[in-house]
């Protein structure tokens, strides 16, 4: 019974299972087809949450040993499953017919006919046969009106997916796996969150929202580290980590320089985030779905792969424009990751790259207009399978060992000391040049 309970809990706690269940309900029996449908008919929803409890508390035939607490877990009340289950219920089906199909799928009978039979066998008297119930015959709902009501919804969703893609339509792929809060920072930054969803098997989409423009403040950096820790140490299957923004215009507008200068430990924390991505034991993809400026582009560059925004959005290293020098670690990450000519253009011209220009220059590995492009990029390279051998992070650490040495410890201290000494020498040189010029000008006038 415990194994079955876990399976049922799993069925409601990740998107692949949700898609498979929906596929079974629609009679197609596959995860892929299930992921293409998201009926949004309120008339089908009435008993769904009740069923989640009924199936484990009143079904004497098969699930009598499940307690009420397990039922509430299935309803999504654990912290890591709850966030958008209610939204999902609003796009799912809960008539008597779907109960039988879904219950059959839980018990290992995903086929339409067998699923219904198995569902009825295990359902017990509490779920079936009362006033208003739907008679199930050979896997079909004996309710023509209800069947006719479902079909237009399916067609509407399909049209939406064809025109807008997954992010713009009713969808079951937005279920939250977990959420990391981003605390407020003064009045300028009201706080936000990083939400992890699973739009495809073993693809973990971290969407960060920190208004107004996803500045890399201390709370944001700490939340990023926490999200990565939850994925690595929380028992989740190895896969691919994608970061993206929930703010329409910006992936990230970089650092708040005043905050960075005034906050003890800010720079080591920033570099620790980069190092975490550089050594993370799964492939990481920065889906820049808006502008990535300065520190925002640095964050993206610490990922294994980068996807440029399209049709709008620029990538730029604009320190030249606002008079901020590149600290050694900042310069190092671009020097190690980008072609030298591109590095020169970024630093010395502050060029704003659009998606096509960024791809041609080697800043990014692809262009993404939406989630489908991201998933296609991942599938084409089979990235979700790469970390399963367990050495992915070790290989990355060795690849980037010279860069990593400049992000912490003695290596960082030596580079910072060298940088400070260079700035001091430059100040002395400028002062010497000023004195020399004054003397030269005086002597030149004396010759006239």
From TrEMBL:
GO terms for cellular component: peroxisome. InterPro entries: ClpP/crotonase-like_dom_sf, Enoyl-CoA_hydra/iso. It comes from the Eukaryota. One of its GO terms (molecular function) is delta(3)-delta(2)-enoyl-CoA isomerase activity. Pfam families: ECH_1 (PF00378). This is Uncharacterized protein. The lineage of its organism: Eukaryota, Fungi, Dikarya, Ascomycota, Pezizomycotina. SUPFAM superfamilies: ClpP/crotonase. One of its GO terms (biological process) is fatty acid beta-oxidation. It comes from Emericellopsis cladophorae.
């Amino acid at each position: 019974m415990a194994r079955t309970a876990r399976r049922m809990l799993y069925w409601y706690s990740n998107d692949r299972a949700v898609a498979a269940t929906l596929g079974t309900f629609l009679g197609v029996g596959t995860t892929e087809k299930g992921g293409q449908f998201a009926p949004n008919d309120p008339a089908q929803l009435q008993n769904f949450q009740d069923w989640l409890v009924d199936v484990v508390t009143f079904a004497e035939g098969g699930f009598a040993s499940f307690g009420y607490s397990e039922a509430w877990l299935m309803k999504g009340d654990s912290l890591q499953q709850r966030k958008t289950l209610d939204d999902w219920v609003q796009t799912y089906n809960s008539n008597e017919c779907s109960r039988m199909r879904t219950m059959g799928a839980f018990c290992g009978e995903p086929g339409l006919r067998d699923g219904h039979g198995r569902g009825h066998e295990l359902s017990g008297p509490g779920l079936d046969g009362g006033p208003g119930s739907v008679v199930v015959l050979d896997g079909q709902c004996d309710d023509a009106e209800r069947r006719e009501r479902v079909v237009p919804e399916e067609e509407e969703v399909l049209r939406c997916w064809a025109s807008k893609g997954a992010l713009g339509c009713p969808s079951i792929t937005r279920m939250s796996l977990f959420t990391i809060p981003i605390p407020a920072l003064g009045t300028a930054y009201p706080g936000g969150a990083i939400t992890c969803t699973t739009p495809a098997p073993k693809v973990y989409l971290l969407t960060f929202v920190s208004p107004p423009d996803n500045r890399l403040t201390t709370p944001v950096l700490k939340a990023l580290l926490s999200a990565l820790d939850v994925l690595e140490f929380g028992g989740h299957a190895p896969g691919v980590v994608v970061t993206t923004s929930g703010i329409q215009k910006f992936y990230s507008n970089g650092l708040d320089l005043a905050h960075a200068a005034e906050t003890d430990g800010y720079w080591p924390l920033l570099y620790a985030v980069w190092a975490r991505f550089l050594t993370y034991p799964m492939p990481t993809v920065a889906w820049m779905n808006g502008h990535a400026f300065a520190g925002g582009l640095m964050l993206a560059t610490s990922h294994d792969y980068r996807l440029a925004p399209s049709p709008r959005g620029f990538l730029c290293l604009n320190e030249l424009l606002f008079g901020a020098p590149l600290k050694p670690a900042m310069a190092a990450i671009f020097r190690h990751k980008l072609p030298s000519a591109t590095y020169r253009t970024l630093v010395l011209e502050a060029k704003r790259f659009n998606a096509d220009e960024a791809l041609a220059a080697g800043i990014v590995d692809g262009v993404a207009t939406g989630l489908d492009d991201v998933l296609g990029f991942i599938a084409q390279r089979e990235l979700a399978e790469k970390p399963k051998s367990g050495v992915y992070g070790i290989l990355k650490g060795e690849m980037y060992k010279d860069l990593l040495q400049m992000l912490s410890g003695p290596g960082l201290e030596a580079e910072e000391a060298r940088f400070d000494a260079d700035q001091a020498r430059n100040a002395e040189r400028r002062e010497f040049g000023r004195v020399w010029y004054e003397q030269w000008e005086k002597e030149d006038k004396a010759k006239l």
